[in-house]
Each structure stands twice: as C-alpha cells, then as structure tokens.
C-alpha cells in the first residue's frame, strides 16, 4: 500500500483532492460558524470544533458505504440493440447518478453565489438555536448535506487509480482527515481568504462540474456502453489534474495582477 501512496498519481490525487475538500468546505465552515455564533461565547469554539470533527466522521463513514456500493461491479441488466449496448451494474449507476448530482449541485451553487450570495446563509440564520445540543444537531444536518458532494468528489478523483479499492479508500480517508484538520486549525484565515477572493470558490465549483462529467463518462465506460459499435472510453485522470493545475495557475496570475493594481 505504501508503494501506491508514494506514486505520482496517488500524490497528485491526494494534493488535488485535499485542496478541493478545503475550498468546497468553506461554506460548511461558514454555516457551522453561523450556528455556533447563536450560542453563548464560551460554547462557540466547542460547537465549531465538534461540528468539524463530526463532519470528518460522517464523511469517513459515507466513504466506506459508497466504496462498498462501487465495489458491486457485476452487471445485473444488459440492454443490446443494433445501435446501443449497455451492461448496467450498481457501480455504473452510482457513478452516473453521482456525476449528475455534482453537475446539478455545482451549477445551482454557482448561480446562487452570483445572483444571491447570502441566500443559504440567511436560511441558516433564520433557524432558532437555544442550546449546545440544538446547535450540534443543526451542524450535523449541515455536515451531511455538504458530505454528499465531498464524497462524490473524492470518488471521482480516485476511482480507477488502483485495482484494489481498499487502496483508493485509504487515499480518500487521508485526504478527508487532512482537509478537516487544516480547516480546524486555519478555519478563520481560510474563510477570510475566500471572502477576499470569491473566484476561488467559483473555481472549485467549476472543477466539480468537470468531475461530474468525468464520473458520467466513467459510468458509461464501466457499463461497456457502445453507440453504433463505438465504445465509450474513460477520461484519463491526468487531463483533469492538468486542467485544475492550469486553472489555478491562471487564477494565481490574476490574483497577483489585481494585487499590483491595488
């Protein structure tokens, strides 16, 4: 396993996934902070830390569950005509549904951030919280909602990296633990940086759209889909890493240019 974790593909996947988990976890931090700020001051830090730890536990549990479903790779239904062949498995269905969800959720989030950036925050603020237990319950609900796209992102970034699914599961767990640890230690500085540079979060959501398309094509590939005798191939992960790295480089140049003007 150590040999796999030290390969260039695994290291690139770990760095990229950790970065995406942190960027996409900013909303989670904001909403946890809103819920925690309704408590007396001496309970706020405790509620925030408990919320982030619970987020990590939920994501690890969901990773095991989703990884189990993706392991069901044997086809249970085959459809074959002159122009279409498809062999459906639970693995392909989970990846396809996950890809559609990421595209829908990311597109919706981008639209809301452009048109009504405070919409979700106002909804959380409207919730009545009077005790630590109520705050933690609210945080658990928020964590679960944000865990879904986090887990699907992890699956999209690591699926197919190694024949042994347990190896990629370990890689995903490491990325989740690192990202939550970073958020616990640097929640406020990260949040302030994103507030000053909102394009970073939009960029992270745009990456999710790419990952969503990749999950859909991977589902078609794993179900041996053929259109008019032409099979659907899997998109190499290297293309995704290059697109993300190039986009971040352009954003860095833009950040430096704006900073010089100011």
From TrEMBL:
Keyword Protease listed? The answer is: no
Q: Which UniProt keywords apply?
A: Membrane, Transmembrane, Transmembrane helix
**Pfam families attached to this UniProt entry:** TerC
* Membrane topology designation: Multi-pass membrane protein
Q: Which domain of life is it from?
A: Bacteria
For this protein, the record's InterPro entries field holds:
Integral_membrane_TerC (IPR005496), MFS_trans_sf (IPR036259)
Q: What is its main location?
A: membrane
Q: Which GO terms describe its cellular component?
A: membrane
Q: Where in the cell is it found?
A: Membrane
List membrane-spanning regions: 12-36, 48-71, 83-104, 135-155, 167-190, 202-219, 239-258
Q: Which family does it belong to?
A: Belongs to the TerC family.
What protein name is recorded for this chain? TerC family protein
Q: Provide the species name.
A: Winogradskyella flava
